[in-house]
Amino acid sequence: EKRGYFFVLTLTGDSDEHRLSPAAIADVLSSLREAKSQATRGSVLITTSQGRFFSNGLDLGWARSAGSRSEAAERLNHMVDSLISLPMPTVAVVQGHAAAAGFVLALCHNYVLMRSDRGVLYMSEVDLGIPLPDYFTVLFRAKIGSVSARRDALLRGTKIRGADAARLGIVDGVKGSEEELEDAGIRLAEQLAARKWDGEIYKVIRQSLYPELCGVLGLGVSKPVLSKL
């Protein structure tokens, strides 16, 4: 949904868990392409959800089916690529649980806000016996500065609540209710939109911050056009 300068991507569906199936990933990619095509100076993407979950990760039934594990990783890779290369600031408003690929989806945004009264960040792969794609671990190194926080998230399967996530620098703020969190996301987006940044330059600077991640994803770091400087 386009609201002025904001593009609001809301994860919905029959299931409250918002698992990332082929159809769900395709819908997200389509929405990101639409936002990119309509982007102007001051555009901002807000990603949020309905229900108890932000996203409970990949649709494991599909991901575990014969021949689909590599397809699952490839599709999710495209979604990560699209967010890292989107020419505008991005804000994840995490209204509920964000697990596995749902946690990854949140971390792909420039800013992450979370509730203090509900929801956890949880990397379930170690508990489920599923290896991590390379870009998962590189993303965690790029976005979470604390070595012990990364260790506990990836090697211990710690379920991280809002206050701890803020203390560890994983999220940028926590609020006590759905309404307060939504308002905080809008206020942050308004502050970002008011700067009227050039989206392509913003994208180049973002990618330059994460060279290892862009290398693993196969994203070349573009050089800005000198006439824009």
TrEMBL record:
It comes from the Eukaryota. The keyword Coiled coil does not apply. GO terms for molecular function: delta(3)-delta(2)-enoyl-CoA isomerase activity. Keywords: Lipid metabolism. Gene3D superfamilies: 2-enoyl-CoA Hydratase, Chain A, domain 1. It catalyses: a (3E)-enoyl-CoA = a 4-saturated (2E)-enoyl-CoA; a (3Z)-enoyl-CoA = a 4-saturated (2E)-enoyl-CoA. The keyword Electron transport does not apply. Pathway: Lipid metabolism; fatty acid beta-oxidation. Belongs to the enoyl-CoA hydratase/isomerase family. This is Delta(3)-Delta(2)-enoyl-CoA isomerase. It comes from Linum tenue. The lineage of its organism: Eukaryota, Viridiplantae, Streptophyta, Embryophyta, Tracheophyta.
